[in-house]
Design goal:
Blueprint lengths: L5 E12 L2 E12 L3 E6 L5 H8 L7 E6 L2 E2 L5 H8 L2 E4 L11 H12 L4 H14 L15 H12 L6 E5 L7 H18 L2 E5 L3 H7 L2 E6 L4 E6 L1 H7 L3 H8 L10
Parallel strand pairs: 3-8, 3-9, 6-7, 7-8
Antiparallel strand pairs: 1-2, 1-4, 4-5, 9-10
């Protein structure tokens, strides 16, 4: 695959809930191998945009093309095939509480493949080992820490060895050390698996550590107000609101525009 090829193309996306428009005319691309971060102030539509991208909701207008196919216009069967090519992790791992970590990780393999029980068990062990949970397969989600649940959710997202991963606030609710450890794990996995990552985050330390490129959403404009490398935007962006967001100088950021 050409390293400059766009894995994702978002064009003219307008989205919201009911009559409430949250995002308007959103355009951007994500390239192969990038760690791409969606950020912005509270209520700007970060998670809403992610839900449009993975096909959970249909935008009011626009298209989301993943691997050359529009997920918005895809049929149910086409979307099912597309979803095997990417993994998603949610804020608290979104693990099933009545199932062990190993059983959680096995779910995508049982759902989307015809692999044998033994083959699935081996893949599950491998994925848990990759996220440093190799000894915890028989544990229930309630028996492990929040950071471990996030890593278990990551193992499940990687079960089908996708070339694209989506993360919704991976560092939310974690202490600084656990958050830094998760950032390091994400970087290692991205390098080893050559995976493209799309991450929704507001954690500046994590963003500066892992992001190749960011887009910044604003609730007032309902659009993208800046895009680029986070440190360059922090130091050079002409928009003072963007600089404030990237330095946390003003806690009432959404009221500045």
């Amino acid at each position: 695959m050409d390293k400059s090829e766009n894995i994702i193309e978002v064009s003219g996306v307008t989205a919201g809930y009911g009559n409430n428009v949250v995002l308007k005319d959103i355009d951007f691309t994500v390239k192969h191998g990038e760690i791409f971060v969606i950020m912005g102030g509270s209520g700007c539509g970060k998670s809403t945009l992610l839900k449009q991208m993975i096909g959970l909701y249909r935008p009011f207008a626009g298209s989301v093309t993943i691997f050359g196919q529009d997920i918005v216009e895809a049929t149910l069967s086409e979307r099912r095939v597309m979803m095997q090519k990417f993994g998603v992790t949610y804020q608290d791992g979104a693990l099933f509480g009545s199932m062990t970590l190993a059983e959680n990780v096995a779910l995508p393999l049982e759902e989307y493949t015809d692999k044998s029980v033994a083959e699935i068990a081996q893949i599950v062990r491998d994925k848990l080992q990759q996220v440093e949970l190799g000894e915890f397969g028989d544990y229930m989600p309630s028996e492990i820490s929040g950071g471990m649940r996030k890593r278990a959710g990551l193992a499940r997202a990687m079960a089908l060895s996708p070339s694209l991963l989506f993360f919704d606030e991976p560092s939310a609710g974690l202490d600084p050390i656990t958050s830094a450890d998760l950032d390091s794990l994400i970087l290692v996995l991205q390098r080893e698996m050559k995976t493209t990552l799309v991450i929704v985050s507001h954690e500046l330390d994590s963003i500066y550590t892992i992001a190749d490129r960011v887009i910044i959403l604003n609730a007032a404009t309902k659009g993208i107000v800046a895009s680029g490398k986070p440190r360059e935007l922090r130091d050079n962006c002409q928009d003072s609101w963007v600089r404030d967001l990237l330095t946390r100088k003003n806690m009432k950021l959404e009221n500045k525009i």
